Automatic annotation (TrEMBL):
This is Catalase. It comes from the Bacteria. Its cofactor is heme. Decomposes hydrogen peroxide into water and oxygen; serves to protect cells from the toxic effects of hydrogen peroxide. It catalyses: 2 H2O2 = O2 + 2 H2O. It comes from Streptomyces cavourensis. Its EC number is 1.11.1.6. Belongs to the catalase family. HPII subfamily. The keyword Lipoprotein does not apply. One of its GO terms (biological process) is response to oxidative stress.
Length: 538
């Protein structure tokens, strides 16, 4: 890497671009030396042992040996596309973000994913789907890292390792892949009843989307928008697909998982290649930023709650069009790194304790996954805004930084006349009062209501949708070995709706608990990993 290979903003130039494009007429070593044979190693005689001296052999195999990076600890399986976001300007009164001003077009990269399965798992499993969008705005990168379900399993990020340990395959046999049909999942979600709402969405048709192009997306948490006057508004983000929301039925999902495990990624790539560009409108629900941070009694900091659209309509603020497939899966879909802390002026976070923990987790995990602190320089992660930071060196550094004084102020390099406190149009946190309080590990009392919104969801379903939900609970719970877990799950269902509970109980061949039965602490149960047990087939 000579100094001419990287432009001052970190973009590769000239020779570097040619190297990356692999465009030479001859096959070469990584150093550019031409090769005359890449199929036979250098040996002591045609039938003799291989010589250590064969650098090409060692370079080729060594590089191959290190081709894999760790898959994401969650959302390992994904498919992505490039596109453009065009702002309607309707959000301008509530946010000063430049990319939300009328008519502004911003390049984006969107990665869809399942959550629990490994990188090679099937697409059409029953699971939540990730919907992560990177906006390359002129004011820096903004990431909206959402899901296709508007609520989450837990209310505090400290439980995230626990819910994922419970949802991932069992540690002994590493089954099942990417579905909720197992004891640890049901054990967790019935003992932590805040998970009831998300679980119900998973058991509904939302858990088996027909296509990534036909899914809604949700920012889940409440965010804060700030306008040019400094006024702050609380919002929830929604993506609404132009094609409408469609799901598979369970039998289709199962057949597709067997016949074409790549069903969703193939659908996305084929549609884009054919010019049928999928589109979503981005919308916001807006709420006054009051000290209580609740709306009509719904705690806006509780990520297990929605605000019904009848109470706060989703107002469209822009249009997303996905119009190009990645040209290299690894470089783009695998190496993209989203982060909730990637914010631009006009968009800020709130004190939702799940959101706050995510602010820590993503960078931390990416340091391992992407091998050190410089993954922001990878082409897919690079901001389109000029960069003038003071970050230097480190593993996989590819920028050739100029100057001698990476600190501010300095009297040697000049160049950046920035003074602390000066109005540079920079991101500034909204001054928000923090309640005078004692340190405590406690959730607000409003977080204790775990059943009223699941009930609302159930009651909003059509008879066919209810049938699907009953069948899903019956199928998934039917995979559990532990009777006590099934019984506890029925108790949770009794707290949602007695008919739902009765039908699932009948499907499982168990008595239905009385309405309002209480979920109690579990009795110790024998370990699951006893050998010799068959995995139930249906
Ligand atoms: C990855 C969404 C909660 C930790 C992801 C991805 C999405 C997502 C969409 C995939 C990003 C990609 O495509 O690369 C969400 C949503 C959440 C949530 C909507 C709740 C509302 C959490 C929490 C934690 C967490 C509470 C940890 C405390 C992670 C980690 C990754 C990830 C470690 C892998 C990131 C990487 O390797 O690049 N999440 N997540 N998530 N999430 Fe979350």
């Amino acid at each position: 890497h000579g100094p001419e290979t990287v432009s001052p903003t970190g973009q590769p130039t000239g020779a570097e671009q040619a190297r990356m494009a692999q465009s030479g007429a001859y096959l070469t070593t990584a150093q550019g030396a031409r090769l005359y044979d890449t199929d036979h190693s250098l040996k002591a005689g045609a039938r003799g042992p291989v010589l250590l001296q064969d650098h090409h052999l060692r370079e080729k195999i060594t590089h191959f040996d290190h081709e894999r990076i760790p898959e994401r600890v969650v959302h390992a399986r994904g498919a992505a596309a490039h596109g453009v976001f065009q702002a309607y300007g309707t959000a301008a009164p509530v946010s000063k973000a430049a990319f939300l001003a009328k008519g502004v077009e911003t390049p984006v990269f969107v990665r869809f994913s399942t959550v629990l399965g490994s990188r090679g798992s099937a697409d059409t499993v029953r699971d939540t789907r990730g919907f992560a969008t990177k906006f390359y705005t002129e004011e820096g990168v903004f990431d909206l890292v959402g899901n296709n379900i508007p609520v989450f399993f837990i209310q505090d990020a400290i439980k995230f390792p626990d819910v994922i340990h419970a949802g991932k395959p069992h540690p002994d046999r590493e089954i099942p892949q990417a579905q909720s049909a197992h004891d640890t999942f049901w054990d967790f979600v019935t003992l932590h009843t805040e998970a009831t709402h998300h679980t119900l969405w998973n058991m509904s048709d939302r858990g088996i989307p027909r296509s990534y192009r036909m899914m809604e997306g949700f920012g889940v948490h409440t965010f804060r928008l700030v306008n040019a006057e400094g006024d702050s508004t609380l919002v929830k983000f929604h993506w609404k697909p132009k094609l409408g929301v469609h799901s598979l039925v369970w039998e289709e999902a199962q057949i597709a998982a067997g016949v074409d495990p790549d069903f969703h990624r193939r659908d996305l790539a084929d549609a884009i290649e054919a010019g049928a560009f999928p589109q979503w409108e981005l919308g916001i629900q807006t709420f006054p930023d009051t000290p209580e941070q609740n709306f009509a009694g719904i705690d806006l900091l509780d990520p297990t709650k929605i605000v019904p659209e009848e109470m706060a309509p989703v107002q469209p603020i822009g249009l997303l069009t996905l119009n190009a497939n990645p040209s290299n899966y690894f470089a783009e879909t695998e190496q993209v790194a989203f982060h909730l802390g990637h914010l631009v002026p006009g968009i800020d976070v709130t004190d939702d304790p799940l959101l706050q923990g995510r602010l820590f987790s993503y960078l931390d995990t990416q340091l391992t996954r992407l091998g050190g602190p410089n993954f922001g320089q990878l082409p897919i992660n690079r901001t389109h805004a000029p960069v003038n930071d003071m970050l230097r060196d480190g593993m996989h550094q590819t920028a050739v930084h100029r100057g001698v004084a990476p600190y501010r102020p300095n009297s040697l390099d000049g160049g950046c006349p920035f003074l602390a406190g000066e109005d540079t149009g920079a991101f500034v946190e909204v001054p928000a009062e923090v309640a005078a309080s004692v340190k405590e590990r406690k959730a607000p009392a409003s977080f204790d209501d775990h059943f009223s919104q699941p009930r609302l969801f159930w009651l909003s379903m059509t008879p066919t949708e209810r049938e699907h939900i009953i069948a899903a609970y019956t199928f998934e719970l039917g995979k559990c070995y532990e009777q006590a877990i099934k019984e506890r799950a029925l108790t949770v269902l009794a707290n949602i709706d007695s008919e739902l509970c009765a039908q699932v109980a009948a499907g499982l061949g168990l008595p239905a608990p009385a309405a309002g039965a209480r979920v109690t602490d579990p009795a110790p149960s024998p370990a699951l990993s006893q050998l010799g047990r068959a995995w139930p087939l249906d």
